[in-house]
Amino acid sequence: MGTATAGISVASPATGTLPEQDPRVRDLKVERSENNLFVSMQLDLSELTLKSNREITYLPVLTFGERHLELPRVIVAGRNRYIQNLRHGDLSHGARLCRPGKVIDYSALIPYEQWMETATLSLFEDECGCGFNVVSHDRKDLAVLDFTPKVFKPAYAFVTPVAELVKTREARGSAYIDFPVNRTEIRPDYRRNPEELQKIRHTIDVLRSDADTRIVSVSIEGFASPEGPYANNERLAKGRTEALLGYVRGLYTFDASIMKSSWVAEDWAGLRRYVQSSDIAQKADILSILDMENLTPDAREWKLKSAYPEQYRFLLENVYPGLRHSDYAVEYIIRSYTNVEEIKAVMKSAPQKLSLHEMNVVAQSLEPGSDEYCEVFEVAVRMYPDDPVANLNAANIALGRDELERAAGYLAKAGNTPEATYARGIYAAKGGDYVEAVRLFDDASKAGVRQAAEAVAQLRELGLIE
Question: 67-70 and 55-64 as β-strands: parallel, antiparallel, unpaired?
């Protein structure tokens, strides 16, 4: 296992100021492996002189809060004290006995404990007189250790969404209205019509009852299934769509200008989507027939029916009923919100009413990185799952939490802005692909993302790149 050298900040833990340099201490190094701490230094006592019965003890000590650990001491003794120490042999374990006037190479190896991560290394000096009483005491702080894990912590480039001048939204749905065979009039109580018509009414009623919204358009597009003559299907699609539009118009007092309708005589596109996603026999051949747009609709239907009668009967009974549908869309405008507290309240009760810019207003009022701050961007991407800005900002939140799998999903829909390139560089770096990370950071930097150069410098300082 390799060693890690402490980033030594020469600062007093009490005041945060630089202590006086101790001229006696040179080449101080503090290194750690997984289980041990190694301290080495030169203690220059070449100018020290002592009376015969005097001695000085130099004691390195590690301290952090209430925790402390004494390292092996160095005892420098005058002539008589030196001899007495040798005779009695009562030196503490690991202590080193020396004469003054020398340069001492000091080293100590001790078991590493977590509290030492940011401990202070100090040198205590006690001078003893001949009566074994301490005549002076001194302490010098040599270093504040820093063995906190060195990890890549880039700055994130969030993007401010563009404010919407008008917040236009659309509520969409499909209704499957039952009509008598070959008829176009609406019968509200016929078969499943009560439930299907209720879907349309509910969509409109919810928006009409909301004081924050204003309906600006109601449109219905009707579809018929592609069996039988095309001309008759066109008549049915047009007549049934107009009947449904008239039914809705009769329920409300909308201006005629906002009511719109259109129709598709035969829903070949819907039929193709079903076949494409199915495991029906002869699937490829059936799809090739459906794609024969050079044929008239009636000729295409005959070819399908005659070539694959069994599959045609299955489609007619199980799929064609679902192709007779009315798609409705209600377009509406939501008022804007500017007050932060009001936006917070709306975010809790009806976040779909907010624009990305309004959500960003809330984010700017919160502490970056806090749970509440992160939640805003997660709500934003839930409300706007395909928006590049929402996905980019959500990716930044996920990257900050080292949730790389989630970040990858967001980055796939984050677009190709310089900020998105930078975020992909962070993703690469956190995944260990530093070559790709540097490439992306360089591209982002050239495009004006200032954080990119700082990210490269950080990778270099961590020794992850040259």
Answer: antiparallel
Rg (CA), the chain: 40
Q: What confidence score (pLDDT) does residue 138 get?
A: 86
Q: Could you give the CA distance from residue 30 to residue 12 in angstroms, rounded to a whole number?
A: 17
Write the burial class of residue 95 (CB in 10 Å: 0-12 exposed, 13-18 middle, 19+ buried): middle
10 Å Cβ neighbour count for 164? 13
Residue with tokens 């008008």: 166
Burial class (CB in 10 A: 0-12, 13-18, 19+), 57: middle
| Domain definitions of the chain by residue range | 4-144, 167-332, 337-461
Predicted pLDDT of residue 400: 95
pLDDT of residue 298: 96
Q: Hey, what are 241's tokens?
A: 């769509």
Taking the CA atoms of 304, 306, 310 and 316 in sequence, report the sign of the dihedral they define: positive
Strand partners, 173: 328
Regarding pTM above 0.85, the answer is no
The domain at 167-332 falls in which architecture?
2-Layer Sandwich (3.30)
- Residues 100 and 77: their CA atoms lie apart, in Å, by 7
Beta-carbon count within 10 A of 296 CB: 11
Spell out the alpha helix ranges (H) of 226-350: 230-251, 268-277, 283-290, 297-307, 309-318, 320-323, 340-349
Tell me what pLDDT residue 136 has: 65
Task: Tell me yes or no: is domain 337-461 CATH 1.10.10.10.
Answer: no
Report whether 55 contacts 132 (CB < 8 A).
no
Written as one string, the DSSP assignment of 77-103 is E-HHHHHHHHHH--PPTT-EEE-SSSE
**CATH architecture of the region 4-144:** Sandwich (2.60)
Q: Is 228 exposed, middle or buried (0-12, 13-18, 19+ CB in 10 A)?
A: middle
Among residues 52, 45, 48, 49, the alpha carbon closest in space to that of 129 is found at 52
Q: Show the tokens assigned to 197.
A: 């018509």
pLDDT along the chain (466 residues), means of 10: 41 37 87 90 92 91 94 92 82 85 94 93 81 65 87 94 94 94 92 95 96 96 95 95 95 93 96 96 96 95 96 95 95 95 96 96 95 96 97 97 96 97 97 96 97 96 89
